[in-house]
Each structure stands twice: as structure tokens, then as C-alpha cells.
Write a structure and sequence with these properties.
- Helices cover 69% and strands 0% of the residues.
- By secondary structure, the chain is mainly α.
- The longest helix has 40 residues.
- The protein is globular.
- The termini are far apart.
Length: 294
């Protein structure tokens, strides 16, 4: 334990004491799930429960992460803790790969198996006028054989998705420049390129919000627009959520850099956020090709 370690020397493996944070975070998540479940079912107080849970959760995470930062900056984290954090982040990103893999798999299965099977001779008596064509942008197509889904137009790759692709790829470059500057102990350069990276992430989110506005108002493309609409908003929406989380991570890392945190030798907090951001970039490239071009 740290009490038996000489001053200025990290313990062999730091074990924190009992903490209230896990229980408090669970309480916040309870109100989030309860409120979301009630809200989508038309219960008025569900939105307030959701907002309360998110606020509670944000406060708890702020305190929790603050404790971890203070432990790190006070020298309690040895190389073994650093290794454990790296493994934890690696497994977390792997779980995210599986998360998006499931959604890409659903899109693949719908396009390559479900729609051809529904258009086969076996279903001709059930839906004689069904057209097994992707994307499903008109009544009688895959969206709605009975015409219950309104006609819509699909979202093409130009201009907003292509601009967003350029923004994310550029942000990966600026983040890499910031990392190399940190390794060279050029703090001012690191902070400058980190702010550029955060700004590029914010621009991406702003353009994606405008893209959704265009989809709903001018293309009539909605979440209810058949299997095309549901998979489009599911994949791009979850990716946008991950961009938001990654941008927050980079923002707080930048603020920590301005406070003098991290050194060329010890900066896994920076590296973990960078790993996550590069993962987000790679996922978007897959989305850009599969969702917008094919």
C-alpha cells in the first residue's frame, strides 16, 4: 500500500480505498434508463427523469475522474498501473469494434439476405408487387410493399459526408502532430494542435446535425423510413455519439495539458484518448463507403 512507500516513490501497485463513485454512478444510470424508457412510451415525466439522471451521472463522473487525475499527478501510479490502463483501453476499444460490427452486420444481412429472400419466388404470393431493390426509396420497394412508408430520397456522399470525412481525417493528422510534439516536449505546439483537433471534431458534429436537418426536411428521410432509414440513422447516429464522447475526451486532455499535466515519458491519458479518436476515424471511413457510396 502507498502508506508503506517512501515519499516520492510510486507503490508497487496502487490499490485505491473504498469509493462511493460506482454506486452513485449506478443511481444516475437508473434514472437515465427509467426516464428514457418512459419518455419513448409517451410518459411526460420521463424526459425530466432522463435529464436528472444525465446531470447526476455527469457530476459523479467529474468527481470520479478528478480523483483519478489527482492520484496520477501525485505519483501513485507506477508502470504496472500504466500497463493495466493500456490493457483496459485496448479491451474497451475492442468492445466498441464489436459494437459497430453488429450494426455493420445488420446492414449487410438486410441488404444481402433479407431483401433478396423477400423478393424471391417463395414470397411472390405474399407480396406479388415487391421489388427487392436497395435502397428503399419509394412505396413498393423494400421500405413498404403496402405503401405505409412515405417516399424518400437517400443521402448521397456529396457534399456534407465528404466534407465531414475530410474533417475527421485532418483531425487525425493534427492529433498525431500534437502527439509527436508532446514526445518532443513542445507543450505549446501540442496544445495548439490539440485545440485544432477539438475544433475539427466540433465542426464534424455541427455538419452532421445539419445533415440530419436536410434529411428530415428536404429528403423526407427519417428513422421510420423503412430498413434504409433505420440502418442509416442507427450507424451514423451512434458514430456521432462516439465523436461527441471522443471530442470531450480530447477537450479535457487539452485542458490538462494547459495545467501542466503529462510528460514525454508519462502521458497515457493523452494516448488513450488518441487511440479512441483514431478508432472513430476508422469507423467513419467504413460508414462513408458502405452507407453513402454503396
Amino acid at each position: 500500500m502507498s502508506t508503506a512507500v517512501p515519499k516520492g516513490q510510486a507503490p508497487y501497485y496502487f490499490v485505491p480505498g473504498p469509493s462511493r463513485h460506482p454506486v452513485m454512478a449506478s443511481i444516475g444510470l437508473f434514472f437515465v434508463i427509467l426516464g428514457a424508457g418512459q419518455w419513448v412510451n409517451g410518459v411526460g415525466w420521463g424526459a425530466y427523469s432522463l435529464a436528472f439522471g444525465l446531470l447526476w451521472w455527469a457530476v459523479v463522473l467529474t468527481q470520479w475522474f478528478g480523483d483519478a487525475i489527482r492520484e496520477s499527478e501525485s505519483g501513485l501510479y507506477s508502470q504496472r498501473i500504466d500497463v493495466s490502463y493500456r490493457w483496459a483501453m485496448a479491451w474497451f476499444i475492442f468492445s466498441e469494434v464489436m459494437f459497430f460490427g453488429a450494426f455493420f452486420g445488420a446492414l449487410y444481412w438486410a441488404r444481402m439476405h433479407v431483401i433478396p429472400n423477400l423478393g424471391s419466388i417463395d414470397n411472390a404470393l405474399l407480396w406479388p408487387d415487391f421489388k427487392a431493390i436497395w435502397p428503399s426509396d419509394a412505396p413498393g420497394y423494400t421500405a413498404s410493399p403496402a405503401g405505409t412508408v412515405e417516399p424518400f430520397r437517400t443521402m448521397g456522399p456529396w457534399p456534407l459526408p465528404t466534407i465531414n470525412t475530410a474533417l475527421l481525417l485532418t483531425s487525425g493528422v493534427t492529433l498525431t502532430i500534437a502527439h509527436h510534439a508532446l514526445l518532443a516536449n513542445q507543450r505549446a505546439k501540442t496544445i495548439g494542435f490539440m485545440w485544432i483537433t477539438v475544433l475539427l471534431g466540433a465542426l464534424f458534429l455541427g455538419l452532421q446535425g445539419y445533415e440530419y436537418y436536410e434529411a428530415y426536411t428536404h429528403l423526407n428521410l427519417k428513422l421510420s423510413s423503412g430498413i434504409y432509414g433505420s440502418t442509416f440513422f442507427m450507424l451514423t447516429g451512434f458514430h456521432g455519439l462516439h465523436v461527441f464522447v471522443g471530442a470531450l475526451m480530447l477537450l479535457f486532455i487539452t485542458l490538462r495539458l494547459q495545467k501542466g499535466h503529462f510528460t514525454p515519458e508519462r502521458h497515457f491519458g493523452f494516448e488513450g484518448a488518441a487511440w479512441y479518436w483514431h478508432f472513430v476515424d476508422v469507423v467513419w471511413l467504413g460508414l462513408y463507403v458502405v452507407v453513402y457510396w454503396t
